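So, can you check?
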Amino acid sequence: MNESRKQRDQARTLLLSTILADIKNREIELNHAPTDDETAEVLRRGIKKRRESVEVYEKVGRTEAAATETAEIKALEAFLPAAVPPEEIRAAVREAIAGGAKDMGKVMGAVMPQFKGRADGKLVNQIVREELAASTKS
């Protein structure tokens, strides 16, 4: 935050101050300092909001606003732990299916706790759908 202020990067300063306010609000809700996981969850919520905004802006043709939101997403993602590679998720999904989970809910229930906070739910959902479709064909 201080670095972005020194560089007079108004957009980044605004973004960071907004996220820090969100984290402070979360701290007030919890009545204790947020853990790393809780802080990462606040960041993920901010990223999710911005992704939704990008979709809306693109639908109405506001490409400049969508580009701004996309840049903010990239800046926030830099503060999150590294994402899990899709191959690792796919292996866990196959293992859950082999373990007897045959429907979407059971597979997601088995896989998501392993990747809590490290993988996007949409990506996991997509991989589960692909693997369930592949397992029913065989």
Remarks:
- The chain is about 75% helix and 0% strand.
- Residues 82 and 118 are 7 Å apart (CA to CA).
- The chain has a mean pLDDT of 86.
- The chain has two domains: 2-77, 86-137.
